[in-house]
Description:
By secondary structure, the protein is an alpha/beta fold.
Amino acid sequence: MTDVTGAPADVLHTLFRTDQGGHEQVVLCQDRASGLKAVIAIHSTALGPALGGTRFYPYATEEEAVADALNLSRGMSYKNAMAGLDHGGGKAVIIGDPEQIKTEQLLLAYGRFVASLGGRYVTACDVGTYVQDMDVVARECPWTTGRSPEKGGAGDSSVLTAYGVFQGMRASAQHLWGDPTLRGRKIGIAGVGKVGHHLVEHLLEDGAEVVVTDVRQESVRRVLDKHPGGRVTAVADTDALIRTEGLDIYAPCALGGALNDDSVPVLTARIVCGAANNQLAHPGVEKDLADRGILYAPDYVVNAGGVIQVADELHGFDFDRCRAKAAKIFDTTLAIFARAKTDGIPPAAAADRIAEQRMAEARTRR
């Protein structure tokens, strides 16, 4: 483990920037034998131990990795607060291409670093990490979730993540059109990987028409082959998707930054509700959406099904109990829209206020 004082100057500058959210602890990890380089960021433990996944990604620089860990961990504080969990926010990133450097030795080394925090941070899956990886990490760290059912875990958290997004879409439809059904609506999904392909199933069951795209053509082909009847179609890329005529809902389900200065002006959808984290590329985008009359369901609210699932794993996993908790995302989303209307602010700002209030009350009690 590396003390932050040993970090390069540009990384230190990122760590101590006040606009990154006032984190409690940031740990830089390095294991030369396995090639592990990782960042563990704990944003808040006001509500309880920090909980968030491990992202394995080939960042261009260490500073980029640190910035992502800080941003993602802050988002987890808000997500866990809005999900009603007794957990703060944390996130870890492992630097490198998982297809090239991921090994058992590296994952075990990572597990030891997480374990050294003594339970202040509880880890799980994220982009580039999977259930089988968490099974390895858990051999060195008891504060590991997202494990396989065979190892006492809950398994794939993307199942309930998709279900929560579906509930967020239903709430958005209720708010905008007065009816929660998605029957007859055209919904575009950018990214049909871990979460997106489960979301397709929920939408088709509810009678929606679905348009998909993904940078991995094999993911698109899997969905099209499974649903050959014509209710699922594909477009070449995300730019084509957001410009699709007659689109009712746009669901970003890949990496963050999908809502930006280029995409928002050309969006045809009336609602944005998806599984991707950090969809707003920068502050102010939420106002741009509101100015165009586009209803935005805050990402960290609607995609909380997965974290609800892995948090439950710590107490003896029960799928039906988790599904019932994830179903409440419908009510939470409606409450955010109501608060936004009352306060005269965008839904993203309303969600932040509610989450910050819960964290502040927890700090006062403690």
